[in-house]
Amino acid sequence: MNTEGKEGAEEEQVISDEERMDEDDDVQIDVVKQAESYKEQGNKEYSAKNWDGAVEYYTKAIDLQPDNATYYGNRAASQIMLGLYNKALKDSLTALEKDPNFTKAHLRAAKCYFTLGDFPNAKKHYSQVLVSEPSNTEAKTNVSNITTILKNIETAKNLIQSGDFGRALTAIENDILTQFSLSNSAPEVGNLKAKCLLGLGKFNEANKILTDLLRDNPKNPEALYLRGIVFYYIGNYQNSLSHIQQALRMDPDDAKFQKSLKAIRNIESTKKQGNDYFNAQDNLAAYNAYTTALGLTDDFEKSVPLWQGNKTLESKRLNNKLLTSQLYCNRAAALTQLGRFEEALSDCNRTITFDPDYIKAYLRRANIYTLQEKHQEAIYDYEKAKQLDPKNKDIKDKLRTAQMDLKKAERKDHYKILGVGKNATEEEIKKAYRKLALVWHPDRHSGTNEDSEKATKMFQDIGEAYSVLSDPKKRRDFDNGVDLMEGGGYGGGGGFGEGVDVNDLFSHMFFSQG
């Protein structure tokens, strides 16, 4: 066995390892130098206000030296200048993991938290700076500012809780946003401002703020929920449910998310049931479904957190005017079909109270008035509907029909005079005339002048009515209102029966066959 050769090999191996260690040290030194070089280039770009260029070089330095806190802190500073606060916050916190006493990283993290609206965490990092640097002006000033902001936020919350949305909005805009140069994108402040606008019924403004909040942070469950409520109030139920579902996925235990989602689904499905029943002509079932949906709507709107638990606010709460109007108007249609006209009118009136421009409510109320022969009221509603939709031909036609119905109602109603229906046969008309003519013949009323005059007038009206309704052409023209049309009528503007010798008519009826 050649032990000498073996020892020589081991010695050679030891020398090789030592040489390699020296080489590794040299490489490491080169890496550190290169990383520092990238940092210096990043600093130059930062000084030249080329923030993107600075980020690029600091990133190269981090890639070479991932445990160097300074590189993360410098990149965070550049990202702050670019307005990339979420990325800057991440780098600042990473720097603090590497070096918990890195003052600049605390300041940058605090600035990011402050800008993003997380005031308690901002205050925590500023306070940490004051532990090591009690005289740090930036930290002292911002701790004071944040204390004021948090106090003003509590004031705004209390005003919202009491329902004073106007004063709460003013407090948020003046005492928080303007005073401390904050934007609506600060989540807590933005959510509060959106609540105020929602409480004031300013849905479009609330929606804009919530849209901006969610663009900056799509995982803001409160903003998703509030936007879902905004969509509910403007009648966009699909988007309402979608947003509340997203909020619930992020926070499955939130009771208000669960309750709102269930309530809106129930309202929508119950309303659809009512529509299906109505289309199937099951009007009583439709009426009951619409009534249930109205109750569900009322219960849900009371439960919206803006006024939940405050009895005074519950009575002043916002209503989904579009939904409530539709439900009352639909229920009025079902009640009309059931012949319950007064209840139907009441629902139409409620609809118009909620939405004075709801055309369908005016049309349905006009139809009810027509069925009740209240033609002047029907004309008013058709005229209102025409004002709201001037080009609608159907409304114009209905208005003309109502105007004609009023004229018909104001002339002598030959059917009513004879006591027959509009579908009476020729024989029924003749029989009615014979009976009434005998009752009201002047010869049978020769008592007082008043009694005689009344009988003469009744006899004359009965004769005129019979002369029109016994003639097929005159009856058809009478039914069509020809005498009421411009240029219509018979003989110089007189009615169909005017000019008839009722005595001759009577004699012809009773004596011509003798």
Secondary-structure topology with pairs:
Layout: H1 3-47, H2 51-64, H3 69-81, H4 85-98, H5 103-115, H6 119-132, H7 137-161, H8 165-178, H9 187-199, H10 203-216, H11 221-233, H12 237-250, H13 255-279, H14 283-303, H15 311-316, H16 321-337, H17 341-354, H18 359-371, H19 375-388, H20 393-410, H21 414-418, H22 426-440, H23 449-469, H24 472-480, H25 502-511
Helix pairs in contact: 1-2, 2-3, 3-4, 3-5, 4-5, 5-6, 6-7, 7-8, 7-9, 8-9, 9-10, 9-11, 10-11, 11-12, 12-13, 13-14, 14-16, 16-17, 16-18, 17-18, 18-19, 19-20, 22-23, 23-25
**Number of E-state strands:** 0
Q: What helical percentage do the residues reach?
A: over 70%
Structural class: mainly alpha
- The whole-angstrom Rg is 43 Å
Number of helices: 25
* Biggest pleated sheet: none
Overall geometric form = rod-shaped
Overall pLDDT metric: 87
Task: Detail the poorly predicted runs.
Answer: 1-15, 487-494
DSSP strand content: under 5%
N-to-C series of helices and strands: HHHHHHHHHHHHHHHHHHHHHHHHH
The N- and C-terminal alpha carbons lie at a distance of: 166 Å
